[in-house]
Amino acid sequence: MNLVEFIKRFPNEQKCRDHFREYRIRKGVICKKCNHSSHYRLSGKEQFQCKQCGFRTTLRSGTVLQSSKLPFWYWYIAFHLMSSTKKGFSAHEVRRQLGHKRYEPIWLMMRKIRAAMGKADWNETLAGMLELDDAYFATGTSKRVKKRLKRGKGSQKKSKVTVMAESFPLEIEGRRERFCGQFKMKAHRSENKEAIQQVVSQAIDPASVLFTDKSTGYVDLKSLVDVHVSYKSSWEGTDELKWVHIAIANAKRTLLGIYHVIKENYLQYYLDEFCYKLNRRYSTNLFDNLVFSSI
After folding, report:
1. Rounded-to-integer distance, Cα 290 and Cα 65, Å
2. Start-to-end CA span in the chain (Å)
3. How crowded is residue 45: how many other Cβ atoms within 10 Å of its Cβ?
4. What is the spatial distance between Cα 170 and Cα 204, in angstroms, rounded to a whole number?
5. How many alpha carbons fall within 13 Å on the CB side of residue 251?
6. How many CA atoms lie within 13 A of 50 on its CB side?
7. Which of 72, 99, 133, 167 has the fewest CB atoms lying closer than 10 Å?
């Protein structure tokens, strides 16, 4: 959906409300009080009433729009901007496009949308033949920390990210190629192998074949998957970890080019947005998928 199509489809606040209500009904409303799923809509009100206990749920409650005072139209414009490009938009740019005075509500709105993107992806696990490698992303540090920076591994200027990719071989016209499936990225500060094991146990199906380099942090991963294959070097003279390296390079360029500096506490949100778009690169309806994931 391009910009012209978006304006025709959602020209005002009421159209956005009607669309969100339709998707809310389609996904189903769960009562916060009794967990009952059967509701009916109150006429003339943006509320749903539970048929079992009578508890009322507002249209925004239980979604990423909860507690937000921003118009539905703001949210829908953000949904469109964040789903219509491969790269992304900074909160400052979205604030400028909306003509909103304050930066903080727009930044919080976009952070909630990125959190919904991450939740949608992390509900599923990677399976089959997988590649895994670690990367270090540049993150912002305070002036106080900059005065006593540590060098090398564990530096406060770098944040460790574990990158995983589904990679399966296919033979095309006599040539053997590797093709990619889904991706996941997880930021964590710890250099301990236990942290990587926890990420792998959460993100990867145990009945998988895992390819890594010979880093000492990957030694015990064989206990978490069916087969663990390690290579001498992950970068020099080998194409076995091709897709994680491509994903790492593209993610670094995207984050640096658009957001310039990201604090470590918020890095995961931006990684989730990058992976959400990458995993749905063939989707023809990313906007509606994003709205549905936000409910």
Report:
1. 13
2. 20
3. 11
4. 22
5. 33
6. 15
7. 99
Cα-flanking dihedrals φ and ψ of residue 165, to 5°?
Answer: -145, 135
Cβ–Cβ < 8 Å for 82, 88: yes
Q: Which residues contact 18 (CB under 8 A, 6 or more apart)?
A: none
What's the rounded Cα separation, in Å, for the pair 290 and 193?
34
Structure confidence by residue, pLDDT tens digits, 95-121: 999 999 999 999 999 999 999 999 999
The burial class, CB within 10 Å (0-12 / 13-18 / 19+), for 192 is exposed
User: Rounded to an integer, what distance in angstroms lies between the CA atom of residue 216 and that of residue 224?
Assistant: 16
Distance CA 126, CA 128 (A): 7
Q: Is 73 helix (H, G, I), strand (E, B) or coil?
A: helix
Task: Answer with the residue of higher pLDDT: 74 or 138.
Answer: 74
Q: Which tokens sit at 79?
A: 């949904």
Partners of residue 176 on adjacent β-strands: 171
Compute the distance between CA of residue 293 and CA of residue 122 in angstroms, rounded to an integer: 12
Per-residue pLDDT averaged across 253-265, rounded? 91
How far is 172 from 170, CA to CA, in rounded Å?
6
Q: Which residues pair with 172 in a beta bridge?
A: 175
Residue 76, both tokens: 């829908």
Strands 227-231 and 158-172: unpaired
Total-model pTM = 0.91
Angle at 131 between CA 129 and CA 132, to 5 degrees: 140
3-state secondary structure of 220: helix
Token pair 């989707």 is at which residue?
A: 283
Q: Which residue, 195, 219, 222, 194, is CA-closest to 209? A: 222
φ, ψ of residue 173 to 5 degrees: the values are 50, 45
pLDDT (tens digit per residue) in 130-154: 999 999 998 887 666 665 666 666 6
- The C-alpha atoms of residue 72 and residue 33 are separated, in whole angstroms, by 26
